[in-house]
Each structure stands twice: as C-alpha cells, then as structure tokens.
Amino acid sequence: MEAAISANNIVKSFGGKKVLDDISFNVSSGQIFGLLGPSGAGKTTLIKILTGQLRRDLGTVLINGVDADKLTGEDSKSFGIMMDDFGIYERLNCYDNLKIFAEIYGVKKDGILNALKKVGLENAKKTSAAKLSKGMLSRLRLARVFMTDPDILFLDEPTSGLDPATADEIHKIMLAEKEKGKTIFLTTHTMSEAEKLCNDILMINDGKIVEYGSPKEICRRYNHQRMLKIHLSDGSDIQLPHSENTSEKVAELIKNGRAETIHTTEPNLETVFMELTGKELAI
To answer: What are phi and psi of 67, to 5 degrees?
Structure first.
C-alpha cells in the first residue's frame, strides 16, 4: 500500500532536551494508525511536526508524498486535525462555529451542513457551544475536521473523558471513514480503543519508540507466561502452564465435568507497555 504518512529518523529538541529521538514509521492509506504513550512522551510534538505546525530538527516527513515543512494551503485541505487546544467559541452556535473555519478554507454552506450531519449534530446546529455536553463538543471538533473532506484525519484523543456509549459513537464514525478509504492517525491513552480500532500502533516513551506493529503481533511477542486459566464448576479458578505436560490434567478436569471454561492468558497492550516502561498508559 502507498504510504499516506512517512516519517524517517525524526529528532526534535527543546532547550537542549530531546523530546523525539529517531522516530520512524509509515502509515498506509486507508489505515487507522495509533500513537500510544504516557503524558510527556512526545505525542503532541510528533503530531505538530507531521502536520507542519512545528519544524523538526532532523529527519524527513512526507504527507501524501509532500514534505510536511512545505505544505501549501491547498495541501493542508487534504488533512484535518482534531486537537483539544483547537478552540470552540462558546457564544456561537454549532453552525456559526464551523462557518468561521469554512470561510477560511473556502467551504460552502453544504459542506458545513454535511459535516454536522456526519457527526449527528444536524439538529443542534442552532445550539450554542456553551450548552453542549462534553460528547457533543467532541463531535463539533470532529465536524470541523470533516468540512474539507480530507484524506487524512489527525485525531488527538477524540474520546478522552467521554462515557463508553458516546465513545462508541465516535468509534463508529471513525470506522465509517476508514471504510471510505480515509487514513486516520489516532492518538489515544485507552488501550481497548487502540486494540479495537488500529491496524498498527506506535508506542513511544520519553521520545523513543518502544514498540511498533499490529496490536495482536505486539501482544504475541510478549506472551511469556503462556498460561491456561480454567474456571471450575465450584466457582474457583486455577492457572496451569500452557504446555504438553498440562494436557493430562486438563483432560481429567473435562472428563470429571469440573472444567466450565478454559482460556489462554495473553497480555494486552497496557500490560506490554507496563513491562517495557514500568509506566501506566494514562493521560
């Protein structure tokens, strides 16, 4: 697949401190790519470099084949950015909030209405932003991303602080965009979200890559224990090594009707990250 985003050997320092150190990865077109890491890992800095908001010290970044430092106004229409620090004007209603940015990007009225409809805010177009719930505010920020119908979406923790039902609605919107061939660069601290949505993920810590690959591949690489968890009919649980020597014991439990369920224990992304860094993946 053609790379929608290509980063090679990215280095960025502030005040003599490296915040990104030799970061390289590729994001294929039509893929949801996850960027994971604790607070201060360098995630926001990386997004700003990828979108041309910040210049790197070393390395190369190509967005749809164009150097990120040389993106024109027309090029920038090919990607949309949703970040927490991109403000919403509370005194304006949903429609007028988008109208400001529509005028900047030359988007017609239909583009505003289509963006509101896509995120389920068409009936709230006259509602002031101050009266929106946190979930609706996230949808409004997402609507702004859609106005230029971009090929690449940069979404910085779009479901942060949302309840599970609202987060799931945002997930459905993202998956629908992926089905249309859009590329999504997702920053998240929620491991279940990354496992559910992402084709590949990049884990960074202290500005360095600690893992890179598909969620399943990464978890398999750290499946050291290889244990079987067996839930017994008396309500208790036991764990046995996932080995040839265990087969007779498992067969005996099944034969005697004592084994109700049997599962292999595998690490998830959070346990992998804890093993690599000793830190929790949190905001």
So the answer is: -60, 130
Pair 5, 55: CB distance under 8 Å:
no
pTM flag (> 0.85)? no
Q: What's the pLDDT tens digit per position in 140-159?
A: 999 998 888 899 999 998 88
At residue 182, what are phi and psi to the nearest 5 degrees?
A: -75, 150
CB within 8 Å of 179: residues ≥ 6 apart: none
Q: Is there a contact between 49 and 68 (Cβ–Cβ < 8 Å)? A: yes
Better-predicted residue by pLDDT, 199 or 243:
199
Other Cβ atoms closer than 10 A to 104: 10
∠ CA(160), CA(165), CA(170), 5° rounding?
60
Q: Which tokens is 27 given?
A: 């994001």
Structural domains in the chain, CATH included, are 1-78+150-223+268-283 (3.40.50.300), 87-148 (no CATH), 224-265 (no CATH)
- Which residue type is seen at 240? L
Own/partner pairs, 163-167, CB within 8 angstroms, 24+ separation: 163/135, 166/135, 166/138, 167/193
Q: To 10 degrees, what angle do helices 109-118 and 134-146 make?
A: 130
